[in-house]
C-alpha cells in the first residue's frame, strides 16, 4: 500500500501550480517530480492531479513517500539540537550551512535526514514534515510537525499569521529610521533564476524591523515576518539600503563573517491542544556573536 505525506495549502502558497509548490516549497528536484508523476504519486484533495494545476487555500496535496523507511528521506546519523518537543511537533535549532530538506543533488546531510534518524532511534515512524524553511546559511528555529493533522493546524496558523518568526540580522550601515516596516512585493529576478528581487508583479511581502544595537558602520536588527517569501529578509534589507553582512548573494562579503549574518532567533505559535502561546528561542551561534563583537571593537 502506498504511503503519502500530506500538505495543506496555506494562503501564501495559493495560486502556485503543483509543480511550483513541489519545487519551491518542498524543494523537490526535477528528477523526483518526474518519478512522482510516473508513479502516480501526486494527489490533490484525494484525486490524481497534474503539475500545472493551480492550488487553492485549504487544498490537501499528497505526495508519495519513497521507500526510505517511511520518513520521506533517508535516515542519517547526525547532530539534532531539539529546542522544544511535544507529541505534535518539534522545534529544531538548525546550524548554518545545512539544508532543511534534501533538494537537487543534495540528498544527505540535511536536517531532515538527521531528524529521521533521531525518530528512527526512538522507534517513531513519521514522515518528516517541515512547517516552514530557512536558507542553508541561516541558523536557528525550524518547526517540524509529527503528523498530518498537526501539520494542517500549524499550516492554518502560518496562514493566519498566528505563527510569528523573529530573526536577528547584522547589516551594513546605521539604519535610519531605527525601526519601521518594509512592504515590497518579491518575485523572480529578471536575469538570475536562483535569486529573488523586488518585483511589482511579485507576491506581497511585509517585514517589520527594529534596531537592537548600533555600531560605527553596522546595525543589529530584530525582524518579524508577516509573510514568508523566499529570501524575504535578505531581499528586503538590501532594498532598504542596509544589506546583510556576509551575504554573498544580496549583501556584503567580509573576511570576518563567512556566511550571512542572519539567525532565526525565535518562533511563537499556539499550542495545538492547550491554545496557549509558546515562544521558543534559539541561542545565538558563536560565529554570529563574534561578528557582533568585531563590529563593536574594530569599526
TrEMBL record:
Entries under Pfam families matching the protein: PseudoU_synth_2 (PF00849)
One GO BP: enzyme-directed rRNA pseudouridine synthesis
Record's function text: Responsible for synthesis of pseudouridine from uracil.
Keywords from the named record: Isomerase, RNA-binding
GO molecular function terms attached to this record: catalytic activity, acting on RNA; pseudouridine synthase activity; RNA binding
Enzymatic reactions: a uridine in RNA = a pseudouridine in RNA
Signal peptide (residue range): none
Domain Pseudouridine synthase RsuA/RluA-like: 88-239
List of catalytic residues: 135
SUPFAM superfamilies per record: Pseudouridine synthase
Keyword DNA damage: no
Recorded family membership: Belongs to the pseudouridine synthase RluA family.
Domain of life: Bacteria
Top-tier EC class: isomerase
Entry protein name: Pseudouridine synthase
Its EC number(s): 5.4.99.-
